[in-house]
From TrEMBL:
Name under which the protein is recorded: Crosslink repair DNA glycosylase YcaQ family protein
Superkingdom to which the source organism belongs: Bacteria
Pfam families, per database record: AlkZ-like
Stored InterPro entries: AlkZ-like
Organism for this UniProt entry: Photobacterium rosenbergii
Length: 385
């Protein structure tokens, strides 16, 4: 079994993720498409303290990214919305691999958080079939009781039809979903055959390792229900065929595609700082980020204010091949300023002056991306551990 140092493992992971971004030829839109395909999914998030996560993640890999690119990818039928480990944009070429979950929800083998109302679902579906794409607000539906968390029955019907595959998201208008019949959204050339269990498991393994370089069984099956045994079998078969091999890293054993090891011969930019989204593909699995990058991270917007260590929306910062800082950020739209409420430097950070010079450039670029004229840093500290 081959071995990698933790530094080599980090290099493989970062290069596979397209971080830091390298200069590329082509239009800004083409570069966004390439980054999207490299990642394999983009997690959608509604929090807008700074630019939303699905835009932020692509911008981190393509400095020329514009928020309208994602809408254009959907319009061009190169991307679609569905569930990965969470609500995501997925490559349209991978559409068939969304079918196992859809069919499981349709059959009742996998539960969804809304209960099915077949009569209402049929009525909603017929209205869209005859009248064209609609949003939830286009349906009148009253709640029997309002507590602040529930959604109206027609919204639940739309979501169930979407989750089981009858409807897709044709577009978003002011971030509101527009639902349409699947057959009117999906391109005619896309493979819609249901993958076998073996095909689906192979896809999960190979797509994860392509995007992340190295991975464990638990990481490959992160938040996916009922697939661990299938993926374990697929890994055994892929090991036997030589399409995957095991690699030992300082912190444990991982699976890797042999072709990914060639990335060790490429150069990793260590002078550029990258401000990352909390939902970035690189670190959405917090235990993996801790294991590989020794970066203990929690998004604290869901933590009571009195218990927060780093702030409401603290963004991890990549530099020199490591995660070396975090910044609690907020866009002040009225003042057109990106406010760094608190910058926390990791205790292990060396060459602080070089890092801060790189961060200055990144903060200005991030401010511009957030349609701000500039930025301020209100406080800087070093983490106590």
């Amino acid at each position: 079994m081959n071995s990698l140092s933790i530094s080599e493992a980090r290099k493989l992971v970062l290069l596979s993720q397209g971080l830091p971004a390298k200069p590329q030829k082509g239009s800004a839109y083409d570069k966004s498409l390439l980054a999207f395909k490299r990642l394999g999914y983009l997690q959608i998030d509604t929090i807008s303290v700074v630019q939303r996560a699905h835009h932020h993640t692509l911008w981190s890999r393509n400095p020329d990214y514009q928020p309208q690119h994602l809408d254009q990818l959907v319009k061009d039928k190169l991307a679609f919305e569905y569930w990965s480990h969470a609500a995501s944009y997925l490559p349209m070429d991978d559409y068939r691999f969304s079918l196992p979950r859809k069919l499981a929800i349709r059959s009742g083998a996998q539960n969804h958080w809304f209960k099915k109302d077949p009569k209402l679902m049929d009525s909603v579906l017929k209205r869209i079939a005859s009248g064209g794409p609609l949003m939830a607000k286009d349906f009148e539906s009253k709640l029997a009781k309002r507590t602040g968390w529930e959604s109206k029955p027609t919204k639940q019907a739309l979501e169930m039809l979407y989750m089981q595959g009858d409807l897709m998201i044709a577009e978003r208008r002011n971030f509101h979903k527009v639902y349409d019949l699947t057959e009117r959204v999906i391109p005619s050339h896309i493979d819609t055959s249901v993958p076998t269990e073996q095909e689906y498991a192979r896809f999960l393994v190979l797509s994860f390792l392509k995007a992340h370089a190295i991975g464990t069984l638990n990481e490959i099956t992160y938040l996916l229900k009922g697939v661990k045994a299938q993926v374990a079998n697929a890994l055994s078969e892929l090991l036997e065929s030589g399409e995957v091999e095991k690699i030992r890293v300082t912190n444990g054993e991982y699976y890797v595609r042999p072709e990914s090891l060639a990335l060790l011969n490429q150069r990793l930019s260590r002078k550029t700082a990258n401000i990352l989204s909390p939902f970035d593909n690189l670190l959405i699995q917090r235990s993996r980020a801790n294991s590989i990058f020794n970066f203990d991270y929690q998004l604290e917007c869901y933590v009571p204010a009195a218990k927060r260590k780093f702030g409401y929306f603290c963004l991890p910062i990549l530099w020199d091949g490591r995660l070396v800082a975090r910044a609690d950020c907020k866009v002040n739209r009225k003042a057109s300023k990106l406010e760094v409420l608190h910058l926390f430097l990791e205790h292990s950070l060396k060459a602080k002056d070089a890092f801060l010079a790189a961060l200055e450039q990144e903060l200005q670029a991030f401010a511009t991306f957030n349609q701000c004229g500039g930025y301020t840093i209100e406080k800087t500290s070093t983490t106590p551990y």
